[in-house]
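Quick illustration, no need to memorize.
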Amino acid sequence: MKSIQYAGLSLAIGLALVSPEAEARPVSYPGGWTAMQMNNGDASTLHVHYSPTFKDSIGLYSERNWGEDWHFTGVQYNRLIKRWNTPNSQANLYFKAAAGQADPFGDGADVKAAGFVGVSADWETRRWFASYEARGYDLGFTKDARQSARVGVAPYIGDYGDLHTWLMLQVDNQPEADTPTTLTPLVRFFYDVQLLEIGYTPESEELMLNWIVRF
């Protein structure tokens, strides 16, 4: 229930914002702001960042991990390492790092210095999509590692300004979790400034709800 309330609050704040384009990427256009809210049965995250250049972004990152019972809050920096453009596709490679604080029960009673580093990559055409991310955490009281990958297909090719739809399958691996590997079928809707993802993880019987806006 807490995770759904967290997601709802973040969604309500973001729906008041306006942007020219929404994409599930950690760096925006120069001068652009992005709000990303991710939610599933294990964790809720909120990432709000500003892009001073087309290669960099910096902002607030907060993660409440319900599955492992900790809360991290800090500043995250993202860097576009390389972009490959072709007439029919685009691929990107990113570096991510964050520094801040975490406490093991989310109540602020035993705060520790914490942070994480990671990399992510994506490739897409108007029809196909693939992505991968790996991240390692040092929370002061524990260490954690996780990775995830996605493949997706667009059932139709929309024009500019249309509602775009993607059917995707996400694979998550977190060795320390009760269920180390999970599969999540999801649907992505992209329209104007908004990107919304809805999925379900059968292994844990958990709902996924992700939302992104650029402004």
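The two ends are 29 Å apart (CA to CA).
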